[in-house]
């Protein structure tokens, strides 16, 4: 998995970089490890301040753009503290990844249901175990 980390409005220190790596890329590694698509995944992580003149309220934001094979996930969170915004973002990303994985399973099940419906025969045309058709005389 390739990931890029971009900051806006402040400078990045090593401790914060490790925190982002543990929280955000850890979520993707944990939830996509069985999917065999982890190598093809790219993450673009951006963290920063929303404004320079506000000091109160939700001034820190974090966002992730994840390019998965056949899909694109985008998550965004804002909070009063940078680490809190990153925590909220990791929860949101986990939900988006679960939706992505369940969508593949549900498409497969939907296709199986359609195939089963197409293969169903009319009840009058079904055969009994003894080889006799329904509706035949005694």
From TrEMBL:
Residues 109-138 are annotated as: Disordered. Gene3D superfamilies: Ribosome hibernation promotion factor-like. It holds the Pfam family Ribosomal_S30AE. Residues 115-138 have a biased composition (Basic and acidic residues). This is Ribosomal subunit interface protein. It comes from Candidatus Sungbacteria bacterium RIFCSPHIGHO2_02_FULL_51_29.
